[in-house]
Amino acid sequence: MNTIEDLRATLHGHADEIEHDAFPARAAGVRQRVAVSRRRRRAAVAGAVAAVLAVVGGVALLPARETPDPAADRQLAGQTAPETIDSLGYTFRFERGYEGEGQRRVRVDASDGPLIVSWAASGDGLRLRTNLATDGDPSLSSKAGASDFSEWSLVLPGQRGWIDARAKSGDVALAVYTLDQVPPGVTKDGMTYRQETPDGSLIAAAIGDQGQTEVSLRVTLPEGRIGFDSFCSAQQIKVAHGLAPNVEWFIDGKVFYGSESCNGPDHDYDLYSGVQYSPGGGIRLGKHRYEAGDTVTVTARLVTEPGDAQLVDDPQARLGFAFYSLADGNNRREQGGHVYQRIAGPRPVVSGATITIDVPDVSVPVIPVVTVPADGFQTWEIWVDGDLDHTFENGLGEAVSLTISTIEPGQSRRVELRLASGTLPDEPVRARYFERID
Q1: In this predicted model, which residue has the larger pLDDT, 286 or 324?
Q2: Please, are residues 114 and 70 in contact by the beta-carbon 8 Å criterion?
Q3: Residue 44, Cβ neighbours under 10 Å: how many?
Q4: N or C: which end of the chain has fewer CB within 10 A?
Q5: What are phi and psi for residue 254, nearest 5 degrees?
């Protein structure tokens, strides 16, 4: 099953496990790295139910106590599911709905396209659990849910697991949406660099063919500040001395961005990841400066080690990069398919090697971002209300911003950043807060 069409047409039998207990508490998290973050969660599982699973766009139905036929229209649990849902300029169209008395779950099979799952309930006390993973252990989360299809979860290509909705009373429903339209920009093989982003507007972008380990693009530099974004995916993640291959970027044959590791397969469909490098107006390389109006050749190369002339031979590799004309005063960010706007919030309190912020009740989801100074390697433990959420290794030796788990409406949170190794310089610690606006 390599396409959504294949998944829609497939029915198969499956035995799976389903919990009937109360929602488990948050499990201890583990490591989040600078370039690649993964959440690891484990939950107790009780009981097993054999089921026939109807697979739709990578989603398979798991029964509660009964298996009624999936809803043929958008009238679900006394609510009307929207025909489409927009996320970051992408349009997702309603595919199938499922109802259950008090509980309903869909199992997500890994597919090559993104999905959206939304929910509703006719009664009170709706609560959502998601358990999704791309590789490694799954990430378990639990939260209160709106009862009118106004909230949803984005499932990335390659993710698998389940989404479960339960209510204290009445019927619950889950609605599945598949990608229907992509926003303006540069699109290739289901991957897109969007024209408009929180950082600014796209100038030019290149997305290589699968297996192409050298990609070039002619770019005319605009007036004003320029931003650079890139991605690399590779199957041969260990090529020399047990290390991952490196991707290097050049302008007219001169290195302009150094190199970074290519850390394995990338399953994303939206390639914008935030501007990684912003040289200001024009680009300076040594004694030479490229100004607005200059046309240059930008090249990305996947090599064994930095400075190596030999390209890596990987038929699964893919490279891409983009240049943006940056907007001034960007106070927005994106996460989980949603847009967040910066707001005021409490200042962090530093006591020894611990940084504490108390987040008050919020009416919409809020993301805290804490910037900590550094003068060498650090390991941080992020604790939320006394539970270890995840750890973070700062191998850059310089100030880094740590993104805390989203604070949901009706919650108040005490967040502690505890320095497990390294030192905390006597420099300001800053916190920023972003609330969801879509």
Answers
A1: 324
A2: no
A3: 9
A4: C
A5: -105, 135
Domain check: are 213 and 303 in the same one? Answer: yes
Total domain count for the chain?
A: 3
Domain that holds residue 259: 185-326
Pairing of strands 387-394, 31-32: parallel
Q: What is the pLDDT of residue 137?
A: 60
Residue 263: its pLDDT value, please? 65
425: tokens are: 């310089």
The whole-angstrom separation of Cα 245 and Cα 236 is 8
* Structure tokens, 376: 């060498």
Position with higher pLDDT, 197 vs 238: 197
Same domain, 378 and 425: yes
How many whole angstroms separate alpha carbon 45 and alpha carbon 22?
11
Tokens of 282: 């024009």
Task: Check if the beta carbon of residue 370 is closer than 8 Å to that of residue 348.
Answer: yes
**Residue 229 CA from chain centroid, whole number:** 16
Is the Cβ–Cβ distance between 340 and 434 less than 8 Å? yes
pLDDT tens digits along 107-132:
888 888 899 999 999 988 888 888 88
Say whether both 164 and 207 belong to one domain: no
CA distances from residue 367 to 143, 237, 269, 356, 404 in whole angstroms, order as listed: 15, 32, 23, 15, 6
List the single range of 108-112, 137-141, 327-331 with lowest mean pLDDT.
137-141
The pLDDT tens digits for 330-379 are 688 888 888 898 888 889 999 999 999 988 777 788 888 888 988 888 89
Say what the alpha-carbon torsion angle 57, 58, 59, 62 is, to the nearest 10 degrees. Answer: 130
Structure tokens at 141: 């989360």
At 45-84, the pLDDT tens digits run 233 222 233 344 455 444 443 344 454 589 999 889 999 9
Q: Which of 181, 206, 238 is the last residue of a domain?
A: 181
- Which of 124, 152, 181 is the last residue in one of the domains? 181
Q: Who contacts 57 (Cβ-Cβ below 8 Å, separation ≥6)?
A: 4, 7, 8, 95, 96, 111, 113, 115, 176, 178
Residue 344 exposed, middle or buried by CB count within 10 Å (0-12, 13-18, 19+): exposed
**DSSP codes of every residue in 322-384:** EEEEEPSS--EEEETTEEEEEE--PPPEEETTEEEEEE---SS-EEEEEEE--SS-EEEEEEE
Q: State the pLDDT at residue 396.
A: 67
Q: Are strands 115-121 and 160-181 parallel, antiparallel or unpaired?
A: antiparallel
b (16+ CB within 10 A) / e for 20-31: eeeeeebbebee
Which helix or strand (DSSP H or E) is residue 6 part of? helix 4-8
Q: Are residues 221 and 190 in the same domain?
A: yes
